Amino acid sequence: MSAKAMEVIKNEVENNPVVLYMKGTPDFPQCGFSARSAEALKACGVPFKAVNVFDDEEVYRQGVKTYSNWPTIPQLYVGGELVGGSDIVIEMFQSGELKTMLENAVSQAG
Q1: Which segments of 1-110 does DSSP mark as H helices, in order?
Q2: Cα 29 vs. chain centroid, distance in angstroms?
Q3: φ, ψ for residue 84 (rounded to 5)?
């Protein structure tokens, strides 16, 4: 894991209120878990940065797992903190907690 990769991820997480590391893009997800996570975020109506882990294998595919110490992708960061993966995102979406968390993060950043 390169220092460059850690720096890139750290900057993205700290400078964007909501970041989703996923396989593919929100419009063209490349796995079901990423698709469901992106759909939940879109349904909340809050802007978010989506990062396709396939765009740079060294930085993202392995780097984000090392950065977070979380073994799977997708990974959602809100307010600089790891929220979790697809199961957690969907659970929080269904309870309404995700929308509140996202709105708070975006309003604090704005």
Answers
A1: 3-15, 32-44, 63-68, 86-95, 97-109
A2: 13
A3: 145, -160
Q: The CATH number of the domain where 43 resides is what?
A: 3.40.30.10
Number of domains in the chain: 1
Per-residue pLDDT for the chain (110 aa), expressed as one digit of tens each? 688 889 999 999 999 999 999 999 999 999 999 999 999 999 999 999 999 999 988 788 788 999 999 999 999 999 999 999 999 999 999 999 999 999 999 999 87
Range of the domain at 74: 3-109
Give the pair of three-digit tokens for residue 57.
Answer: 């294998």
Residue 84's Cβ-count burial label (10 Å; 0-12, 13-18, 19+) is middle
- Token couple for 48: 């978010």
- Which residue, 106, 99, 97, 49, is CA-closest to 74? 49
